[in-house]
């Protein structure tokens, strides 16, 4: 409900109290209901505010220069205080505990309000210097958040440890972090998001591959996660890179785990299978590096990677598992995203890019949103029993994902965050004499698998414009596109250099295809090969790129280009389009390279190969897409699903309308402990 009125909520936003502040209201007073804060020793009670919730901002946030997304999240849920109070006063158990909402960009709103630890008692690595050494807290790394959003899963993180990962993330910025620095930091953040129902492992690869934990998947316990983190600290990238070597090891871990599903001690969650692939993308099949695995002469090098993955997916299914979803993440300003993007499209995944300064968990939001999208109608997820760090004693957490409203097609809205409520074990025992039976039922609910079948617009909208995938057309001799009133052919053979491909198209009465608007981009990229197909784009003697037939200039800033690098390379003067996406899918190539090509014909110049209806695929209003273009999804539906974009009102809000003044610094003891408690 908060999402439906979020534009108004943001426009009317009143400041929220920050848990790292010191200027609280009179309602922040000594209470006895929720135990004693650790800082207060043997004193009874602690200071809480039952009239107001407090917020925490993502680690490292400058509250004087908050991003619009953070401001939007704080203001959207600002009016939940009355809901928190009513729900707890009238709860069936009669007990009160912490209630909270955590958003996908790391904002946490918790009730009742409680001051966060700060100062000398906080470890340096846990302290946010910008907030008076207040103890940082990122709800997205908490097990209850991961359990609510994704459910049980088997995850292999495949991380690139080749020497190219030591190159600067941004070569144009002095002192830029390396790609490895950013990839390792992203992985360390990611490891903290797994729950006890997950099974995980990390595979490092270059020209060889090694699972960090020998033997396969392991439960995501604190001990196992710490073992992986310690191993990451001593890895030093080196060697060449062969994607197939890494993917072989990743699939091997999943296949072996799947074969233990019926064992007494299975090494699998026996639910969704996920490979998160962290790389700069410079694979041996597209560079001068040596490949560890042989590349068949019968197929283009890029296809060798796709063919290999397809065979591994078949092996995984043969082991009794579902197919793995692959989520590639690219690193480096000039990292090659060709194969990573294509792998996401071919394996029901979502691609993203992480640069220096990015919040990795925001970029990885696509992964959590993907898994969470199937949990919209799932029941509440309950954690295992654990000791509350705020003085409640033994507790369970009940958590449930929050999604945007359904679209006009009935599709579930995108993930907004997670709502949680802690329940004390003593309240459970008072409520139900059959306490152990209740716990067993909660454990069963916690381990239910998710369905991951998507409707037409859900996955394209989740991928967004930057990761939009081209159509997967059925094989045909000819294609007619209603939007352009043109015919197209994309023969598998012969493979020709650019000039001969151009002559081939002209000999049939056509030209090499052009892509001058969104409709043409959607259609032509769907006909492209993985390695790249010639189109009618060429650089002239003045180093200006133009469409050969129309003469229209293509600017370096055009969204056609995969990258702006290489546009003036002397040996690369012809345009090649591949299947990495609908946009940013064209790159300069050596005109003498033998490749596939796409010919375009005006309606009045229909080639003979297109005259038989049985050899023709018509893409018109009645055509049923296998991969639906984002442009065919309703604008209002896209607005509901892509809620990571902040409202316009948030852009204009001054910081003091979002977070109240923090006040003068004060100690944890003063802000948490009752007045009569001796220091």
UniProtKB/TrEMBL annotation:
Please give the PROSITE patterns that the UniProt record associates with this protein: C_TYPE_LECTIN_2 (PS50041), VWFA (PS50234)
Q: Which GO terms describe its molecular function?
A: voltage-gated calcium channel activity
Fetch the SMART domains from UniProt.
CLECT, VWA
| Residue ranges annotated for the VWFA domain, each copy included | 154-371
Q: Which GO terms describe its cellular component?
A: voltage-gated calcium channel complex
Residues of the C-type lectin domain: 474-600
A Pfam family? VWA_2
Under the heading InterPro entries, the entry gives: C-type_lectin-like (IPR001304), C-type_lectin-like/link_sf (IPR016186), Ca_channel_alpha-2/delta (IPR051173), CTDL_fold (IPR016187), VWF_A (IPR002035), vWFA_dom_sf (IPR036465)
Protein name as annotated: C-type lectin
Question: Organism source for this protein?
Answer: Ostreobium quekettii
Its lineage opens with: Eukaryota, Viridiplantae, Chlorophyta, core chlorophytes, Ulvophyceae
